[in-house]
Design brief:
alpha+beta; YefM-like fold; 6 helices; 51% helix
Length: 85
């Protein structure tokens, strides 16, 4: 865990946030020579492709074929339904 003073953090907030987001660094904030808090990186984001990438291994060949067959039976309007309506 990286240690940063409150003054350094205030002066370099943009770079601190970049280190959190892109490097995933965890930081301890020090004021008057003692730790007053910690900053943790947020949860990483996934694209839809990454989130569904394991689906291939989760379905058997028969389950995959059944899913594909069922999905092709849907009408276009059912596939493109607006969830907010």
């Amino acid at each position: 865990m990286t240690t940063i003073t409150a003054t350094e953090m205030g002066r370099n907030l943009s770079s601190v946030l970049d280190r959190l987001e892109f490097a995933g660094e965890e930081m301890a904030i020090v004021r008057n020579q003692h730790v007053i808090g910690r900053i943790l990186p947020g949860t990483p984001r996934m694209t839809a492709r990454e989130a569904l990438s394991d689906l291939f291994g989760a379905l058997t060949r028969d389950e995959g074929a059944a899913w594909l067959k069922d999905s092709r039976k849907l009408k276009t309007s059912e596939r493109m339904r607006d969830p907010w309506v």
